[in-house]
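During the second year of the project, the team shifted from modelling isolated chains to modelling whole assemblies. The rationale, set out in the original proposal, was that interfaces cannot be judged from single-chain predictions alone. As a representative example for this report, we include one of the complexes processed in the last quarter. Its constituent sequences, exactly as entered into the pipeline, are reproduced here:
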Amino acid sequence: MVVFEKSYDVIVVGAGHAGCEAALAAARMGRSTLLLTINLDAIALMSCNPAIGGLAKGHLVREIDALGGEMGKNIDATGIQFRILNTKKGPAVRASRAQADKQQYRLRMKRVLENQDNLELKQAEVTGLSVENGTVCGVDTKVGIRYPAKTIILTTGTFMRGLIHVGLTNYPGGRAGDPPSIGISDHLRELGFEVGRLKTGTPARLDGRTIDFDRLEVQHGDAEPTPFSFSTDRIDCAQMDCHIAYTNEKTHDIIRSALDRSPLYGGVIQGVGPRYCPSIEDKVVRFPEKSRHQTFLEPEGRDTVEIYPSGLSTSLPIDVQYAMYRSIHGLEQVEIMRPAYAIEYDYVDPIQLHASLETKLIRNLYHAGQINGTSGYEEAAAQGLMAGINAALRVQEKEPLVLGRNEAYIGVLIDDLVTLGAKEPYRMFTSRAEYRLLLREDNADLRLRDKGHVVGLLPDEDYQAFQYKRTMIGEEFERLRFGKISPAASDPLFLEQLGFSGLKNSLTFEQFLRRPDITYSHLCQIDPVSRDVPAIIREQVEIQIKYQGYIDRQQLEVERAAKFEGTKIPADFDYGGLSGLSAEVREKLVRFRPDTLGQASRIPGVTPAAITVLAIAIRALGAR
Amino acid sequence: MYVRDTIAAISTPAGEGGIGIIRVSGDRAEDIAEKIFIRNMSGGMKSHRFYYGAIADPDEAVSLDEAMVVLMRSPKSYTREDVVEIQCHGGYLVVRKILDLVLKQGARLAEPGEFTKRAFLNGRIDLVQAEAVIDVIRGKTDAAVMLAQHQREGHLSLRIHEARENIVYALAMIEAYLDFPEEDIEFAEDCEIVNSVKGALGKIDNLIDGFDEGRVLREGVSVLIAGKPNVGKSSLLNTLLQEKRAIVTSVPGTTRDIIEEVVNIAGLPVKMLDTAGIRQTDDVVEKEGVRLALEKIAIADLVLFVLDGSRVFDEADGLILDAVAGSNVIVVKNKSDLAPVMIIPDLLLEKPAVEISTVTGTGIDALKELIFSTFIHNRAVDSREYVVLSQARHRDVLQKAGGCLKTFLENFGAGMSLEIVALDLRDALHALGEVTGETTPDDILDLIFQRFCIGK
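Output from the structure prediction step:
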């Protein structure tokens, strides 16, 4: 093994959505960083859906952006259709979603990486880790070079021992067209990690020229696209349409008659697949009463005819794929450009991680993305960002940045992973966040900009713009508390229309806005100054005023839980010497080795009594 | 979780005792005591001194009971927090009312073992000492203890689980609507969600109603035997006791004191109060007996109005009719072995009635049945299906959950945003979690994925 001449602060293995954010974060924080990938032409490749965002995922992207990550900016620059979902529902469950130009997305990200100071990119397949005294100190590659580093971040995606299935045929691969990564997961197992197997799948890519779009329902983007990034002012590009098609009974018959050739139902696939992203054969089997299943036909870019039919992933043989896709109304003549497939891959159960994403077993080794059992670009990017930040902080000998469940979806995501583990691919949903009303897309900057700036990731320029916005919000609140509507000085007809007839005492603007159905547009009719308040300030102020009672209620719960969240458990804590714990709870605590009492309290099966015992023991330790 | 709120509980064993103690611990203990404890001395209470006075509801200015109160300031107390102990008379009702008053002033009902838990948390007792208590606390969620509780309390946990299922369903429907706007799935109708929550609320309300029955089963009830002299009140008591206790003579007015005896009716402890016959009298001793009897009528859980069926309804009977008008009454027509003469006045016709003979024993079982069913409405009491809430903690949990569900129904009906009304359902589940175990987001997602075909 040849040892490379240079030693890095941070090496990131893998250049998918997790790897890119990790490498950028570390480099932007001034660390000398090396990004290694099996294929330099597949950086930030969207291996599945050509889209970013959606419920809870859009939230993640806004948070990544608020901290100083790249994903939001990248999709703003390369998106081809933008939509806000749930506009008729409350602000906490509104989310951004965009279709991406797949090639432009990856090319722009590669450009950003290549232009980043402190960051080098190399093509290499990592086959093992170099570990000394329980601390990682480099990676070994297939061609026999050892790259030394202070910290390593593994973002292996679906590549570790990846196995691709099309019908009963299967072959090793990390993604269609790319080789798998062999050796590293075996090495992890040798090092003592619990390594498991998961499965996911992707639909075929269809030739858009052979689809009769005129016969399909069309779905446009929003008339005015809303950017993901707090740093993007506006999006001007022309938007592309998606189309909606449906399977039918004939499709389902074709699928049912071919189940004997399905690797999923034939028992060839061992890995656990995601329930929320089932293959079409899964849907047909599990919901036989459903006469049709919906698919969005999403363009893969401006300069390509390739179409991604969402919801139609499958591992059925190629002849069945043809018959199945062609049974769909509007797709009778369709040609397949790339076949659908399922892929099995190795992952490392994330209960073996600290909340910083550093492994508990090997010091200075971090895991992010699908290696932790998650699915989704946004979930991966969020972890990559945090792993990058924390590796950089480690090199700087600083405390890691751990976001609370009340601070960010990123906090919920990582806390869920490290306390519950992943038995199936994990996807974020808003229902996973108990403080959902606090974690909105609209306030991601208010929640996280400070933190991004403190760790040195968020540039001063972005931070100053944010501070200006925050000041304006504060001033607007003051103005609304001070400004009054007096019944005497107001048009009685106008007040009556708004349901304020009989108003005796004057009302502050804030009280006025708090009423249901009253918005800034009403206030503008009374108060001319309100017309000059920028939309972005209005939005934030209005949401906070209307949500106030509920925000306070959630804030109260946060404070109640705060004590445990802040109580750290020493890494070498001796659970065996602690009486008052049942054998079962002790075994769980020894296995999980939680970092804080808060984490411990969320491990399934750990009782409140056990937490109490633990709390006392830790307090006693501190007193000693 | 250890929260520094103020807790309170009855510290003496349930049931009648000479003395009852309500213990309050936490920062607000003294504050609460000052609000409800009225005494002649001015100035604040000193630590570790007994004070004499009365407990009264500041809102109603009605004294509940005379009491001795002691304040033990932190850290010199059992929990090392400020502790107030209120000693009052030992009757269940009095103790319970004082506890309710303390809770009304802002204390929270203590969980089993919580005082000890706090003593432990504050470092007053060591781990070994506390382990026994820890077991109790842990018992809340342990399956084995749950099972024991299950057997003891019928299918309480099963019923609560059913309510939980209803709530989980409603929440899953709402979450699906919030989290999967792009899916081609049919969302639940509003009425489906409302019905599911109403179903849960109905089950919870039933359980809360059952709580009083559970209390009755454990604590017993008081039943007063009233009637004019010599209609057979003492004979009835002896028949129910199956032994002679009360002095039985045919001389009217023999019973002058109140005689108390406890009989067991199908597992229900019944404290029988035999009173002096009520009539106009000049005899001083007898007069006192009548006064006592009239007083007791007002506070008895049930009055057995005994009449002599072999005679006409006379003025003396009418006197008693006036006295029992506001009470829970069973009309007992005694002496059914003799020729029936009495015509029951219209005013009493709506009351449950039974004809008995203390001489032959006829009708005694029917009377017992009637007494029993007055308190225990569910006839399946002996079967395993019978669910009673015998612990105040459970009632607390259910009331909390029920309150959340009511808020949900109001807010949902008012068209409030779903991510907001979902909070109410989550709070309800969190409250029930004390009994059913915590409901995790994954439980909700499980149901969504089971019911809806989701996935792109």
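The mean pLDDT of chain A is 93. Residues 461-557 of chain A form a domain with the Arc Repressor Mutant, subunit A fold (CATH 1.10.10.1800).
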